């Protein structure tokens, strides 16, 4: 009897195997846990930094610890982790800029990034630099819509497909069409930045056939269209017009999305800037379900960000989230780069003929020659007609004689970036009306380039742009810093205007301006007349 039962069980097993072999369409449902970690608009911040008033934020050594802690947690649960960058690794911090971002790309490789899309700032330097960066990186650069004019081939890989225990994940790179406008024309002259929407429409259906889920890794901005007078599509438009994208991991607009946005069933995420946060998107995926992503959860993880707590007359700081001890292996790798950059910072970039006035006792009370140099440099860097700079953003004098990069970073220590806005004459007038009410000595005291105006007992008047009166109906291209553009120092009227953060650091613009001139001797020109 026992032998008979064993024989019957064997027959059933053989029959089942025969049925499966004869029916190749029979499959088993596969479910996966996939965690996408991501950063964007890193801008050279491989070192921890001090966003006033807090200290020791970010840095790739702390990020390495954070990422590996998440990996340990996810992998223990049987899941998989994908680490992505949405571009603009370049341009921002002198220690990185002076070394062509070598420390950033090599340290990101050590952390284990899986892919990066090209941002517009990857074209701030000659092509040879980008080629070096590709060699330093152990992860692929992606951009499906950047095409060589002579051959029609894409400059880098358009997409990759990664596999995790049978789960196939397509990652499609897309870069903003306005890149040739935002960077030096000669560095993109041989390239064509094709339509983001049309490129995605052509590739997404193909990727849906080859992969279980499709991720668009974009440097487009979280918008319908980009601001600053440009109309290239952003992530919202991409999600609305191109079906079949499961997730958009975005960059370019430096947007902190604390929750994933859902547009036409597409999840959109973005993690701010400067690697201050790592975005974490947890997905549950059923490859047999009509909607393959069955569950999702999203959060931003601050990288040692801190907040201020006041008690009586004392100020204390605490971590916004958890604190992460810096990875010692990464710190050891960082040290030689920091030392090398330090030597370069001490090299002269030009010469000041006279003292450049930047002390708060002057720059917050009146027009100064250093403020004029700074605002002129802002216009030269961006091609703007008008520059607006808060006096509080200029922090020191520069003595006559050789000017080093360290000197420039002393006068502009905040790492502010230049933001270009479209402003009507009336909006400029509204801004000056507020500036006229600012008490001298306040950091909001306004310094300008490209216009002259009178503050007549708290009233703005006699505004001239070049040699013509301000036209209230005309639209002007205006540059300011990202602090003011966000409404800082009371300039709330700027906050909601169309604007593009160029990513260019204010100190870098001054450095380039002085380097080009060789010797600088700016004057007080009567840009501001004050009637008390």
In words, what does this structure look like?
The chain has 532 residues and is an alpha/beta fold. The protein folds into two domains: 31-338, Metallo-dependent phosphatases (Purple Acid Phosphatase, chain A, domain 2, 4-Layer Sandwich), CATH 3.60.21; 349-531, 5'-Nucleotidase, C-terminal domain (5'-nucleotidase,  domain 2), CATH 3.90.780.10. It has a six-stranded mixed β-sheet with strand order 4-3-2-1-13-14, covered by helices on one side. Strands 6-7-9-10-12-11 form a six-stranded mixed β-sheet, covered by helices on one side. α2 packs parallel to α4, α11 (369-382) crosses α15 (506-517) and α12 (405-411) packs across α15 (506-517). The longest helix is centred in the first third of the chain and has 21 residues, at 2-22. The radius of gyration is 27 Å and the shape is globular. It comes from Candidatus Moduliflexus flocculans. Residues 361-496 form the 5'-Nucleotidase C-terminal domain.
What's the helix and strand layout?
Blueprint: H1 2-22, E1 31-39, H2 60-76, E2 80-85, H3 94-97, H4 102-111, E3 115-117, H5 127-136, E4 141-142, E5 146-148, E6 159-164, E7 167-175, H6 179-182, E8 191-193, H7 196-210, E9 213-219, H8 235-241, E10 247-249, E11 261-263, E12 266-269, E13 277-286, E14 293-302, E15 306-311, E16 314-319, H9 328-345, E17 348-352, H10 360-363, H11 369-382, E18 386-390, E19 401-404, H12 405-411, E20 417-424, H13 425-436, E21 446-449, E22 451-456, E23 459-465, E24 468-469, E25 475-481, H14 482-485, E26 499-505, H15 506-517, E27 519-520, E28 528-531
Parallel strand pairs: 1-2, 2-3, 3-4, 7-9, 9-10, 10-12, 17-27, 18-25, 22-28
Antiparallel strand pairs: 1-13, 5-8, 6-7, 11-12, 13-14, 15-16, 17-19, 18-21, 20-25, 20-26, 22-23, 23-24
């Amino acid at each position: 009897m026992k032998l008979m039962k064993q024989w019957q069980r064997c027959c059933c097993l053989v029959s089942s195997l025969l049925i499966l072999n004869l029916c190749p369409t029979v499959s088993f449902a596969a479910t996966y846990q996939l965690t996408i970690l991501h950063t964007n608009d890193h801008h050279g911040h491989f070192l921890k930094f001090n966003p006033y008033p807090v200290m020791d934020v970010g840095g790739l050594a702390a990020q390495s610890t954070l990422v590996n802690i998440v990996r340990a947690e996810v992998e223990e649960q049987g899941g998989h982790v994908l680490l992505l960058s949405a571009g603009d690794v370049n341009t921002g911090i002198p220690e990185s800029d002076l070394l062509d971002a070598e420390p950033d790309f090599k340290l990101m490789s050590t952390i284990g990034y899986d892919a990066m899309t090209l941002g517009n700032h990857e074209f701030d330097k000659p092509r040879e630099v980008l080629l070096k960066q590709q060699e330093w990186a152990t992860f692929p650069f992606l951009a499906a819509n950047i095409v060589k004019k002579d051959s029609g081939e894409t400059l880098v890989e358009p997409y990759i497909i990664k596999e995790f225990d049978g789960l196939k994940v397509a990652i499609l790179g897309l870069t903003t069409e306005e890149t040739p406008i935002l960077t030096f024309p000669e560095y993109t002259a041989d390239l064509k930045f094709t339509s983001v929407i049309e490129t995605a429409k052509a590739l997404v259906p193909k990727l849906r056939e080859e992969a279980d889920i499709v991720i668009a890794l974009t440097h487009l901005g979280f918008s319908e269209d980009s601001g600053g007078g440009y109309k290239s599509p952003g992530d919202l438009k991409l999600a609305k017009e191109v079906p079949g994208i499961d997730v958009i991991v975005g960059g370019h607009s430096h947007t902190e999305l604390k929750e994933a946005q859902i547009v036409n069933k597409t999840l959109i995420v973005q993690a701010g800037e400067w690697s201050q946060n790592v975005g974490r998107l947890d997905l549950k995926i059923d490859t047999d379900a009509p909607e393959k992503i069955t569950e999702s959860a999203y959060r931003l993880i601050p990288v040692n960000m801190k907040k201020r707590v006041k008690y009586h007359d004392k100020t204390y700081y605490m971590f916004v989230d958890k604190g992460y001890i810096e990875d010692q292996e990464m710190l050891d790798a960082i040290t030689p780069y920091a030392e090398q950059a330090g030597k370069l910072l001490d090299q002269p970039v030009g010469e000041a003929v006279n003292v450049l006035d930047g002390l708060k006792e002057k720059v917050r009370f009146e027009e100064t020659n250093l403020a004029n140099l700074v605002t002129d440099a802002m216009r030269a860097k961006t091609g703007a007609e008008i520059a607006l700079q808060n006096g509080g953003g200029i922090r020191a004098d520069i003595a006559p004689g050789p000017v080093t990069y360290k000197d420039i970073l002393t006068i502009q220590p905040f790492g502010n970036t230049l933001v270009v806005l479209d402003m009507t004459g009336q909006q400029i007038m509204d801004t000056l009306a507020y500036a006229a009410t600012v008490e001298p000595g306040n950091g909001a005291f306004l310094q300008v380039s490209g216009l002259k105006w009178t503050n007549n007992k708290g009233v703005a008047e006699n505004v001239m742009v070049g040699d013509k009166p301000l036209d209230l109906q005309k639209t002007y291209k205006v540059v300011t810093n990202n602090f003011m553009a966000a409404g800082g120092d009371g300039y709330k009227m700027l906050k909601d205007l169309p604007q593009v953060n160029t990513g260019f650091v204010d100190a870098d613009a001054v450095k380039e301006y002085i380097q080009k001139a060789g010797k600088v001797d700016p004057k007080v020109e009567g840009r501001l007349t004050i009637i008390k």
